[in-house]
Amino acid sequence: MEEVKNNGEAAEKQLNFIEEIIENDLASGRCTSVLTRFPPEPNGYLHIGHAKSICLNFGLAKKYGGKTNIRFDDTNPTKEDVEYVDSIKEDVKWLGFEWANEFYASDYFEQLYEWACVLIRKGLAYVDDQTQEEIRAGRGTVSTPGVNSPYRDRSVEENLTLFRQMREGRFKEGEKVLRAKIDMAHPNMLLRDPLMYRINYSHHHRTGNKWCIYPMYDFAHGQCDSIEHITHSICTLEFDVHRPLYDWFIEKLEIYPSHQYEFARLNLTYTVMSKRKLLELVKNGYVMGWDDPRMPTICGIRRRGYTPESIRLFAEKVGVAKRDNTIDLSLLEWCVREDLNRRSNRYMAVLNPVKLVITNWEKGRVEEFEAPLNPAEPDGAKRKIPFAGELYIERDDFMEEPPKKYFRLKPGGEVRLKYTYIVKCEEVIKDSDGNITEIRCTYDPASKPGAGEWRSVKGTIHWVSVADAEKLEVRLIDKLFTEPYMDSIEEGRDYKDYLNPDSMKVVSAYAEPALLKDESGIAVQFERVGYFVKDRDSVPGNPVFNKTAALKDTFKK
Ligand code: ATP
Ligand code: MG
Fold it and tell me: pLDDT band at residue 12, thresholds of 50, 70 and 90?
């Protein structure tokens, strides 16, 4: 990750291209302050790509002393729902941002309708009776011009009447549309008389049945930006071909000139980000829900134990690119480790236990050790850890026939039990199948930390006292897909073919008792194992923890 760090630092000093534009605009007087917007369509839950856009829009405004609106692009009642509105607001707040205003494209339906009439009056829009297929066919191709609609030359009066009747519900869905009159031979296909309005009788989650005509994205977005006086309307690259249309409407309507700028959308390895696919994963039960800790949704990542700080750091490290690219999932993991390593409380937990019995320990004796919750603050808060003669250790921390440089426990070998004594392996007990069931050790009373001279041994392992252990259900979470580049999978295969069957393994684990009293509210570190966060599925007697990240980069380069 060294490379990433260096690039990140370099990028911090240099302005990204949008910052350059903003600084030029402020210097030239095109604008005197910065107003951005985050414009989600409430048709699904936000994902990490949206988080990038949120951090960018809010981050730029913050940097230049400006503000950011949240605007729900609710122009398609068929797929939208208030459930999504609520989750989007929650996610933006969780990321740590406050919007100046909460707006809805539907707030502007009346104004947009009036502006459509303005264009009709200027002879720049007309009602078309062609079917969807006829309109598509008439549009031509990249290499051949389109043909004018037979309805293109309707009079202003007729167009105004028909458009009003569209609004009044006199026509069926698809019977009529309103189109801008631009140029059916324009090299940019989007300018070949694009649709402005279509008829849709679905119930709208805010305006109910008041409207049965809805503006298309292109006739809504720029106009909404303009109404709010958005200075920098930032969107993803695929909208660059829409920009001439964005500008055309604003110019012809003679309204406040917002400007659109495009940056590369964020893609991440080993996952999919299209809302359609995420919805399918949820609906078909491939995951537990939108907030399944394996999902790239913001609520999923949150449930996974990621912090807002780590997501903001990620957005910063990713930077602002002009060309599409796919970011390695390991960068996201690096960011959460960076944050949690600094802040998280430490506890010991054993995920794959084998019993260690100390044969020279007095029966019934319990000793209590203290350890800092966070090693970065050795004088800070501490937790108490009970120690006794029967312990769980990690199966992997013992090897009967170890390789040369194995410093953990082995027959005849010594190891320190973290924060406590040194033990020596004296005997290994196995069942009839040859599985190790118990490791018998003796402890060295003189090796107690703080009691006399410190004796060092090469290995230190973590442990949990059997009598005081809290049993946990632990979800070992891994990548959702097996393929890094899910956007370029083999032709003829479905993205679901690449679901990782091992994306979530549930195991029983044992933890020191203080873990369940943790009040930090963020993920904790299981020492030597990784970062884990308590899940909302926990019930008294069955605490559930999700694995947030490993301690080290587990990706093979
Ligand atoms: P999807 O294609 O996943 O359904 P969308 O683009 O339709 O997403 P919107 O709700 O319209 O979703 O997006 C809101 C804002 O977030 C837009 O400005 C959009 O450009 C931005 N955005 C969406 N996906 C990404 C991404 N992967 N990276 C960066 N920005 C994104
Ligand atoms: Mg969209």
Answer: low
Question: What are the CA-CA distances from residue 295 to residues 183, 278, 287 (Å)?
Answer: 44, 8, 8
Å from CA of 240 to ligand 1 middle = 14
User: Ligand 2 centroid to 168 CA: how many Å?
Assistant: 28
| 236 Cα nearest atom in ligand 1 | 20
Q: Which ligand is nearest the CA of 53, by number? A: 1
CB-count exposure of residue 284 (10 Å: 0-12, 13-18, 19+): exposed
Query: Beta-strand (E) ranges in 238-324?
Result: 259-263, 266-268
Question: Which of these ranges, 186-200, 290-304, 316-330, has the smallest mean pLDDT?
Answer: 316-330
User: Residue 329 above 90 pLDDT?
Assistant: yes
Mean pLDDT of 147-161: 98
Pocket of ligand 1 (CB under 6 A): 39-41, 49-50, 52-53, 235-236, 265-266, 273-275
Distance CA 460, CA 420 (A): 10
Q: Which residues pair with 441 in a beta bridge?
A: 358, 425
Residue of 209, 205, 247 lying closest to 226 (CA atoms): 247
For ligand 1, pick from 72, 79, 216, 236 the residue to mutate: most ligand atoms within 8 Å of CB.
Answer: 236
Sheet with strand 346-347: strands edge to edge = 346-347, 524-526, 530-534, 544-550, 470-477, 504-511, 349-350
Model confidence at 377, in pLDDT bands (50, 70, 90)? confident
